[in-house]
Amino acid sequence: MLPLGGRFDALRVTGRLIHSAVGSGRQENVGQALTDWLHGPVIRDSRTGSGQYHVLVAPDAEWQGDAVRLGAGTYLAVPRVGKQVSPVTRWVVQPQRRGRLCDPSHLAALLATAEPLAEIES
Questions:
Q1: Contact at 8 Å (CB) between 114 and 16?
Q2: pTM for this structure?
Q3: pLDDT one-digit tens code per residue, 66-84
Q4: Cα three-residue angle 15-20-21, rounded to 5 degrees
Q5: What's the domain range around 64?
Q6: Residue 33 located in a structural domain
């Protein structure tokens, strides 16, 4: 568990919304899509039915979207980098270097595609 609000915050997004936005729920497809779109670290917590994704962003980054922002006063289960040891939390996109975080505007653009895609599939 790491405290948020110092090095990074997390934007919590439902699995349903991420899967709709990338057009797949397959781990490999989601990982590649999030790598391509977000260019930063993303954690998946599968303790809930749909699984929550945590997109790591700078504490001072602007966010106006629907994802819940987790910051100071909150702790996040952060898996070890490298070999996966937890069955419930894992890196979807591992950090590449210290300080390299996701750009919230890229997440907003990705999520903007989720609802239109969901309507087409219905």
A1: no
A2: 0.90
A3: 899 999 999 999 998 887 7
A4: 100
A5: 2-97
A6: yes
